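Friendly challenge for the regulars: who can give me the structure tokens for this chain first? No prize, just bragging rights.
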Amino acid sequence: MRQPSVIARRVAAASVSLVLASGAAACAGPKDNDAGSGGDGKPAKGGTLTVLNRDPQVDFDPARLYTSGGGNVPSLVFRTLTTRNREDGAEGAKVVPDLATDLGTPSKNATVWTYHLKKGLTYEDGSPITSGDIKYGIERSFAAELSGGAPYLRDWLIGGADYDGPYKDKEGLDSIETPDDSTIVFHLNKPEGEFPFLATQTQTTPVPKSKDKGTKYENHPLSSGPYKVVKNENDGERLRLERNPHWSAKTDPERKAYPDVIDVRSGLDSSVINQRLAASQGTDATAVTTDTNLGPAELAKLGGKDDQAANVGTGHFGYTNYLAFNPKVKPFDNPKVRQAISYAVDRSSVINAAGGSSLAEAATTYLPNQKSFGYTKYDHFPAGESGNPKKAEELLKEAGYKDGLTVTLVHSNAKDFETSPEIATALQDALKKAGITVKLKGLEDNDYKDTVHSAKKEPGLFLAHWGADWPSGGPFLAPIFDGRQIVQDGYNFNSGFLNDKSVNDEIDEINKLTDLKAAAKRWGALDKKIGEQALTVPLFHPVYKRAYGKDVKNIVISDWTGVLDISQVAVK
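First reply, four minutes later:
Bragging rights claimed.
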């Protein structure tokens, strides 16, 4: 599904599905008492943490993993140049140094980034980590046989688009320099002020060339983190991690690494996972999940048990569900028709279809309602909680449809809260009140993705969703609204085919900023400007609920990952 070109082409379903798979943000707050704590109330080392998941931890190779944001388990083994701040909520949406001493030193135009490594960094065998290992780790991620990772380095590095990896090209990438064993310099083909976010990607994990075994490296990758792989069965279905004796907390203040063992068991049914976590019997009392959310029915059951309701993390992840228009398809070429639909939407019924207010919050902005994205409040087409059919009818008359119109809404038949038949039906009922007859066209999930992401086959109206690879407006707005990222012969995400020079230029100007706070404000302003064109109708931002065992303590879940951070929990 990923095509060899610009970012938008390759963020694809990998990005979106990864975001949802990891999405269960919570702000439950750290818990330092009871089990997992020493006599002084502080978390203590020891015990085994069990991870109960649906999806196996496949391709456990830093070159092939998509993001560290969704890589809660990989982050225990693979350290990167920078990483996410391991704190609750908004504080956790910040980027901090990991292997590097700081967030990098940019050139004046942000096209050259220089990093220096901390002293005393070692692998699980005690050998030193060098800048050359990081360079090699990045280069091997370009090899076709190790594909699957994030596309940014290929797109951003000079010469990256034409590089095939070290197995074919022995010369390596000239755009990555290592003047000494503790310094690495990146030369980019355009300004990128958010390079510190990119440096969190697992592709910046060090890999010594002498230990590289190609596609077999995933069976026993050399650990730079607090845990090492001692067992990998059935391509990540059963993963056992034990302490890396050469890891030093002095060089790694982010990962606490309290448990002695991390036992990852995958291939389980979602309902079974939630039942086991709710019961919290035996080893399940010290278990968590990193990919399974609670549904409305399960929440209702937990809500009736005071002792279990407390063991649920609640919060937000940077994600938006929306209606997408294709202005090339009539009648959506008429802005007034798009505006009419925007007014007619009944967000309360949509939220009910998505599982209720405990699992979804109404959205009127495309950017998620979090500070790190540059969230700027606006509502260009105020419909209230239940829609404004009267205003919608007025706009339809102005557009030449005084007797109403009939449209087709494409959605996936998959039973999820993103593009489900239930949400489509809720929209159908709401638009009917404004004189808009909606015919529903449900497609099987793969067919749906291939259809809505094809520039040639994209329908006029469909349900869509987007999540960012890191908490910033850049990876949220650029793939969807940068006209230079319109893809005619592969996966296209600019569904509105917007190619506005002022928008493109502003994206370039924001990318030059290395002040992330200043950049966030500009992303928010750009979101507000784009929203006036009614190319999408934001519907809701999901709220995630996820259970954990009763003896899992020191809960930390950030707005970056939305996942209970297993590098912080104690279970003893």
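The first helix runs from residue 7 to 22. DSSP finds 15 helices and 18 strands in the chain. Your move, everyone else.
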